[in-house]
From TrEMBL:
<dbReference type="GO" id="GO:0032787">
    <property type="term" value="P:monocarboxylic acid metabolic process"/>
</dbReference>
<dbReference type="InterPro" id="IPR002347">
    <property type="entry name" value="SDR_fam"/>
</dbReference>
<protein>
    <submittedName>
        <fullName>3-hydroxybutyrate dehydrogenase</fullName>
        <ecNumber>1.1.1.30</ecNumber>
    </submittedName>
</protein>
<dbReference type="Pfam" id="PF13561">
    <property type="entry name" value="adh_short_C2"/>
</dbReference>
<dbReference type="InterPro" id="IPR011294">
    <property type="entry name" value="3-OHbutyrate_DH"/>
</dbReference>
<dbReference type="InterPro" id="IPR036291">
    <property type="entry name" value="NAD(P)-bd_dom_sf"/>
</dbReference>
<comment type="similarity">
    <text>Belongs to the short-chain dehydrogenases/reductases (SDR) family.</text>
</comment>
<dbReference type="InterPro" id="IPR020904">
    <property type="entry name" value="Sc_DH/Rdtase_CS"/>
</dbReference>
<keyword id="KW-0560">Oxidoreductase</keyword>
<dbReference type="InterPro" id="IPR050259">
    <property type="entry name" value="SDR"/>
</dbReference>
<dbReference type="GO" id="GO:0003858">
    <property type="term" value="F:3-hydroxybutyrate dehydrogenase activity"/>
</dbReference>
């Protein structure tokens, strides 16, 4: 879709050893960006994944362990990277429960990982972007950053917060060649979601197609999943010159969910 116009740029993608983060990182590498992958583990396969992406796309790539629930480790990730032209704040977790039963520790963890990590990483990255004279901050929010569902109080609050942080970051950088935008996906077909389909089929006595349409994509009018490649290409577009005046906004990739 894109030429290698990001050669010489370094992209840090949090929560990127699987799912959406890995999909975004892969598309950025296809466009020529050097990569810093991240998650909270430090396994041989994490580092092997970075080496695989580097070899596949002819870029440099490395994996840096950092716990996104820890403010100091968020900032240390950026400092250890040494350069950050593109920051993709993607790390996130979920828990579902009624408000009165929602465990306090789960609330704290979701707010820390889904929202506070974006603040801390952005705070560390902006000086590097200003020094380089160019930057892109891309926050992976959610359709739940624009609307709500019951039993997801922490996630919805965090993702609404990410959208607000996106706007503030954009305004503070408005006179500089640095933009900040949020991508708001609906339901995305990740390995985690794929793995849930067989159990849901058994639970409801439905076919795969029925589970996808009637259960998983009940609120997604297109009745089709978003793909990680689509989200990755959206991130690449936001790094292009065509998007230089797109800042402080949300891009919904939700099959029409938030149009309802």
């Amino acid at each position: 879709m894109f030429e290698k116009f990001l050669e010489g740029k370094t992209a840090i993608v949090t929560g990127s050893n699987s799912g959406i983060g890995l999909g975004v990182a892969r598309q950025l590498a296809r466009a020529g960006a050097d990569l810093v992958l991240n998650s909270f583990t430090d396994r041989d396969e994490d580092h092997a994944l970075a080496a695989e992406l580097a070899a596949e796309h002819g870029v440099t790539a490395r994996y840096i362990k950092a716990d996104m629930s820890n403010a100091g480790e968020c900032r240390a990730l950026v400092e250890q990277a040494g350069a950050c032209d593109i920051l993709v704040n993607n790390a996130g977790i979920q828990h579902v429960a009624p408000i009165q039963d929602f465990p306090a520790e789960k609330w704290d963890a979701i707010i820390a990982i889904n929202l506070s990590s974006a603040f801390h990483c952005t705070a560390a990255a902006l000086p590097l972007m200003r020094k380089a004279g160019w930057g892109r901050v891309i926050n992976v929010a959610s359709a739940h950053g624009l609307t709500a569902s019951p039993y997801k109080s922490a996630y919805v609050a965090a993702k609404h917060g990410v959208v607000g942080l996106t706007k503030v970051t954009a305004l503070e950088c408005a006179r500089e060649p640095i933009t900040c935008n949020a991508i708001c996906p609906g339901y995305v077909l990740t390995p985690l979601v794929e793995a849930q389909i067989p159990d849901t089929m058994k639970e409801y006595g439905m076919s795969r197609e029925e589970v996808i349409e009637k259960v998983m994509l009940e609120r997604q009018p297109s009745k089709d999943f978003v793909t990680v490649e689509q989200l990755g290409d959206t991130a690449v577009f936001l790094c292009s010159e065509a998007a230089a005046q797109i800042t402080g906004t949300t891009i919904s990739a939700d099959g029409g969910w938030t149009a309802l």
